[in-house]
Design brief:
9-stranded mixed β-sheet; 6-stranded antiparallel β-sheet; 4 domains; alpha/beta; 522 residues
Length: 522
């Protein structure tokens, strides 16, 4: 038999009959109960008795419930005590953190008992983690992810929380109790953590002292949880009211041409719908939080720029949309490229991966080009907005037959040149993307950074947008492209890259040059 005293619960309720009803139910489950009937006496009991949990009636006289919370939280001896505010269903009660909860009168005893058990389970978990330096595992059905996050924050834990269920294989990294990085599949940052907060089933394991080399979140854990729960609730509401899992979403080209001054999110949503997509595909393919995508998509539907298509009408719609199934290379060409790289890189220099670099000093232009690049089936891109903002990093990869080629944004800022050298030894081709007004700037930046001889023989595709006002362009159409290898430079050819078949032709021409010309000049 345990010698541990029963947990003490304060029931602060001005209605003595209501307080007795709740108190008796708690006593039957083995809890100790103390009663108060006004705010002033409640403060005294909290300080002197240090209860494990407080039920506080929002209508108590003398001390308002918000002032009560403020006083309890300001005292180091009482700041950890969970508080449940008791109100009516019509009361609008807001909280600064998730530490406080709200229930309504009349009491639903069964629901309250489950809430109390969950609160004490969280406290027990916190006590276990506080003294533990080993891995800790459990199930999200026993303790929710928001509760788990608060436990880690309370104990200022550093490590990684891994979550696994049927739909997710996720990681959440913490440093001194704050979330610094979250990832599920290809999604990371705010979007990932907001998604994960909605998980109620799955296994988790916390591995202490595991440090992430990425930082995608910079807010406090309370702000992340509050904003995440808000967005999760609003997203569910919007989906229930405006969207169906049985619908596809398609661009209306005529309406889109009439629009002007679109927000970047709207541009990305429109770009993503060059082919019909269902809602889940749209949400997964863009880096913005789901709520922002949903509200933007809803607005585009209202404006007529995006049309909703039922599954029964899909066949007819698909027939009217240009196919993007044409590959960059055929099977024989992919195998030739694979053989070439294996002989000239992997065997000769013990290099495990190769890189196609992209150089573009204009962020707006780069995003517009990448949106076109995303339409190619062999190219898979990650969260390019983060990489573009940073100025350097992996954008994605080209997936061919028996080969993967990384796509990197190549830095032109001199402070990143040490990283540039690491890319140079793996680079097999370079895309220079610029407007006609800034072409010389980009070319000079690349020439200045060529530090090894073999770079002078690398295939370079110069893609020039023949316009100065890049920001004002909704979608890229014509570009002038010229291929350069060493001293050999072909005259520019104009491509209409708004047509999938011409963009495939442009990329095919570039990759084919890598096969046909020796990067090493031998």
């Amino acid at each position: 038999m345990s010698d541990k005293p029963p947990r003490l619960i304060l029931v602060a309720d001005r209605d003595k009959d209501s307080a007795a009803q709740l108190g008796e139910a708690l006593k039957k489950r083995g809890y100790g109960v103390v009663y108060t009937y006004d705010g002033s006496n409640s403060i005294e009991v909290v300080i002197t008795h240090l209860p494990d949990l407080v039920f506080y009636d929002a209508a108590l006289p003398l001390i308002h419930f918000k002032k009560f919370i403020q006083i309890v939280r300001s005292n180091p001896r009482t700041m950890h005590i969970p508080i449940i505010i008791v109100g009516r269903a019509t009361d609008k009660i807001g909280f600064s953190t998730l530490t406080e909860s709200k229930i309504n009168k009349p009491y639903d005893i069964n629901s309250i008992m489950k809430m109390v058990e969950n609160i004490f389970h969280k406290i027990d978990t916190a006590d276990m983690l506080k003294s533990s330096t080993k891995a800790f595992e459990g199930k999200l059905s026993e303790i929710s992810l928001p509760d788990l996050m608060q436990v880690f924050a309370l104990n200022k834990k550093t490590g990684v929380l891994k979550i696994k269920n049927r739909n997710h294989d996720a990681s959440i990294y913490l440093r001194n109790g704050e979330i610094i990085h979250a990832q599920t599949g290809k999604i990371f940052g705010e979007k990932a953590i907001y998604r994960l907060l909605g998980i109620s089933e799955g296994d988790f394991i916390f591995q202490p002292d595991v440090v992430s080399d990425q930082i995608s979140l910079r807010s406090t854990i309370d702000n992340i949880l509050m904003e995440g729960m808000r967005q999760l609730d609003e997203s569910k509401k919007i989906i229930a009211e405006h969207f169906s899992g049985n619908d596809l979403y398609v661009r209306d080209e005529i309406k889109i041409r009439e629009l002007s001054g679109l927000h970047p999110i709207a541009e990305d949503v429109i770009s993503e719908l060059k082919d019909p997509k269902c809602l889940d595909e749209i949400l997964d393919s863009l880096h913005y939080p789901d709520l922002e995508i949903l509200t933007t998509l809803r607005s585009l539907i209202v404006s007529g720029a995006i049309k909703v298509v039922s599954l029964s009408d899909v066949s007819e719609i698909i027939q009217r949309i240009p196919s993007k199934s044409t590959g960059i290379l055929n099977e024989e060409e992919w195998r030739a490229l694979s053989y070439y790289l294996n002989e000239n890189f992997f065997k000769r220099y013990s290099i495990s991966t190769t890189v196609v670099g992209i150089v573009c000093p204009n962020r707006v232009l780069l995003k517009k080009f990448i949106r076109v690049l995303k339409t190619l089936s062999e190219i898979e891109l990650y969260d390019y907005n983060f990489v573009i903002q940073f100025g350097y990093g992996r954008l994605g990869h080209i997936r061919g037959i028996n080969i993967d080629i990384d796509i990197y944004l190549v830095p032109i800022n001199k402070q990143f040149f040490p990283f540039r050298r690491l890319l140079d030894v793996r680079m097999i081709g370079l895309l220079l993307i610029t407007s006609s007004a800034a072409q010389n700037i980009v070319v000079n930046a690349v020439i200045d950074s060529k530090g090894t001889n073999y770079l002078n023989y690398m295939p370079v595709l110069n893609v020039v947008v023949p316009m100065d006002d890049v920001v004002g362009v909704k979608d890229l159409t014509f570009v002038d492209a010229s291929l350069e290898i060493g001293e050999n430079k072909e005259p520019p050819t104009r491509y209409d890259i708004s047509k999938p078949e011409e963009f495939v032709l442009l990329v095919r021409r570039f990759i084919s040059s890598i096969i046909k010309k020796s990067v090493l000049g031998c």
